[in-house]
Design brief:
Strand content: under 5%
Radius of gyration: 10 Å
Shape: globular
Order of helices and strands: HH
Structural class: mainly alpha
Distance between the termini: 20 Å
Amino acid sequence: MGRHRYYAPEFKRESVRLVLEEGRSIRDVERSLGITFGLLKE
């Protein structure tokens, strides 16, 4: 079973900013940050 990872609020805000303001795809941001596929959709 996997472990639940904690992401700081600043990390989450920056991840969303990359999608909304820079126009990058969610998958591209997830890949570049090394986070699990689908995490930004939650």
